[in-house]
Specification:
Helix content is 36%, strand content 25%. By secondary structure, it is of the alpha+beta class. Strands 1, 4, 5, 6, 7, 8, 9 and 14 form an eight-stranded mixed beta sheet that branches. Strands 11-12-10-13 form a four-stranded antiparallel beta sheet. The chain has a two-stranded antiparallel ribbon with strand order 2-3. Bound molecules: ligand 2P0.
Length: 329
Amino acid sequence: MEGQARAYTNIALIKYWGKKDQVLMIPQNNSISLTLDAFYSETRVTFDSHLTTDQFILNDVLQDEKHGKKVFQFLDLMRQHAGITTKAQVISENHVPTAAGLASSASGMAALAGACAVALDLPQDAVSLSRFARRGSGSASRSIYGGFAEWQKGTDDTNSYAVSLKEDLSAWPLAMVFLLVDSQEKKISSRDGMQRTVDTSVFYPGWLATIEKDLTDMRQGIATNDFELVGQTMERNTMKMHATVLGAVPPFTYWQPDSLKAMQLVQEQRAQGLPCYFTMDAGPNVKVLLQQENLKAFLGAARKTFPEDKIVVAFPGKGIQLVKEFNHD
Ligand code: 2P0
């Protein structure tokens, strides 16, 4: 009863921002992402009848009840699917560049879902894996696929999952540059932040009213390799997401002074003729989408504002990899 999987993180170009159902993890809107190669999680899970409690070891550190909560809840769910009560040990490694301070719930939960599906002999097709991963963390549903993926919001547990939009990007070489602003643990988690926004933000109806147009434009940009359309749509979508939190009660922001510096850098480069666009998630880091031909020029400019160790380059990544066989020697 062992399984192992590797999953890469993804960055949403059209954000998942708000749940309709917090237990089943049904989102308010579809989201579209790009899976990246630079950050990934490798997870091994062993269901073992000798264990009396679940154990979660992350990067060699045994996690306490608080930090392991999402993992333990996910194991309960997988046990329900398999009809067993056996406890499990989860050993996970997050491969994230030092000082990145990047959230890893997308890759982490996707890898855990894949490892559990293998260990418990549950369905392992992409749709089933995406549905399992979604229950761990919404964004994890998209990390099943390489390249571009869309999480179709659906209406219930069976029809809320991600599908691939474009897996092979060899004809469209893209890059994403991470400008790292802060590696501290965030004060307001994405889960709490999005719920507070749904419940209280005066701007949330505006988010929902315009999301279909953003999704349509993004799908078209991806289908036609239209960098400007993808970039412009991505940037306006992230700005709207970050505007909604200012209208929450109490209001909050994920931005820090250096986030604005990074946004300004992108806007200046664009004004000088270099096509680049930014996006931000539930944290202060800024992620810049580029075509690879412009990467060198952008990095040259970025290094004037940000130290080398705060700049990480990523390229489109692969879908989840499951490992089924083990050596027991
Ligand atoms: C996203 N984020 O689409 C959005 C944009 C953050 C901002 O998905 O509650 O950790 O576990 O489903 O997936 C981060 O939220 O939240 C996220 P849960 P998750 O990538």
